[in-house]
Amino acid sequence: MVNDVEKRWNDPPTLRRAARYVLAVIVLTGIAMAVALVWAAARPQCLDAENMRCDTVSRLVVGLGPGLMLLFGGIGAFVITYRQWRDGKPWPIWQGAGWFLFTLMVVYLSLAGASG
User: Fold this and answer.
1) For 20-45, what is each residue's pLDDT tens digit?
2) Cα 114 to chain center, whole Å?
């Protein structure tokens, strides 16, 4: 088991894997956000409205869909953190990836909620 006092912060292969994971989650979240916005704009209830998020369902889908993807991405990073820690491998990089995704989730949800 790894001594928690002696954290290994410098592990390039783990950093690359964590960065690819975070980028994949962000790209998939962006795609989900684009799909949700197109869907919300094409709804018959919103065709004549000025705002593409004209009703509660549109606001929920555009706000919560990508937010949930970031949440699950962060949880996935923390699961990988636990597995890395359990196996005695460098884990702090994955913990940072999880907190970064959680921070993005909070920022996205606050912006999506405020623009309603």
Assistant:
1) 999 999 999 999 999 988 888 887 77
2) 19
DSSP the chain: ---TTS-----HHHHHHHHHHHHHHHHHHHHHHHHHHHHHHHSGGGSSSSSS--SHHHHHHHHHHHHHHHHHHHHHHHHHHHHHHHTTS--HHHHHHHHHHHHHHHHHHHHHHHT-
pTM for this prediction: 0.84
Distances in Å between the Cα of 101 and the Cα atoms of 48, 56, 77, 97 are 36, 26, 9, 6
